Amino acid sequence: VSTPASKEETKTTACSGTGGDTEKEQQEAMEHIDEVQNEIDRLNEQASEEILKVEQKYNKLHQPFFQKRSELIAKIPNFWVTTFVNHPQVSALFGEEDEEALHYLTRVEVTEFEDIKSGYRIDFYFDENPYFENKVLAKEFHLNESGDPSSKSTEIKWKSGKDLMKSSRKRQHEEPESFFTWFTDHSDAGADELGEVIEDDIWSNPLHYYLVPVMDDEEGEGEEDDDDDD
């Protein structure tokens, strides 16, 4: 004759059954979460592709306006060197010799590669100057399919006795950076902050930085007027 199960045995069995059901429910929930996450990831990929197409479209639409802006900027002497000097991150790299050489800078162009995602090029156009033979100095930033960054730049053809890189190296213990050391440095393209600043910040609205001192003066005058009124 079988003995009826005790209350404790019955309770333990019930708890075990409940625990098993809970584990099963959790497992099913995790599987469903994974399925939903896959859908979210798929939509994110689709969104990235569509955003890229929009960026490519508007990159082409921007070009005639960039060209027109460059033509107008060419009418303002020393526009680009003033713009760079007024930008705190860029001016931090400038020595006196850099600034003197960049007074011959007449035009800057930033060109994103057609697919947008693989990189961009910055072209610096110069008038005849006492420092180097080049009319154009270009630096390119590339991102390969694996996402690895790299960069390359035009070889600077320095005139005799005018190599600003040599003078920069002599004072390297004091000023390890200069515009031209940045231009020729390809050791860590992924951390090239100056290239990103020129592409993302300055190129989008160079007039803003050209006018920085003027804007500061106007704000100062406004504050003085307020003080006089008081």
Name of the CATH architecture of the largest domain: 2-Layer Sandwich
Give a count of the beta strands, DSSP E runs of length 2 or more.
4
What CATH calls the topology of the largest domain is Arylsulfatase, C-terminal domain
Question: By helix and strand content, what is the structural category?
Answer: alpha+beta
Helical residue percent band: 55-70%
**Number of helical regions:** 9
**Kindly state the mean pLDDT as a whole number?**
84
How far apart are the first and last residues' alpha carbons, in Å? Answer: 106 Å
Shape from CA axes? Answer: elongated
* Side-by-side strand order of the widest sheet: 1-2-3-4
> What is the chain-wise order of helices and strands?
HHHHEEEEHHHHH
The CATH first-level class of the largest domain comes to: Alpha Beta
Strand residue content:
5-15%
Give the low-confidence spans. 7-16, 170-176
Biggest beta sheet attributes = 4 strands, antiparallel
- The structural domain count equals 2
CATH superfamily grouping of the largest domain: Nucleosome assembly protein
Query: What value does the Rg take, in angstroms?
Result: 31 Å
Write the layout of secondary structure elements.
Blueprint (H helix, E strand, L loop, with lengths): L6 H67 L5 H8 L1 H4 L4 H7 L2 E8 L6 E8 L9 E8 L5 E5 L10 H7 L8 H6 L8 H10 L3 H5 L1 H18 L1
Antiparallel strand pairs: 1-2, 2-3, 3-4
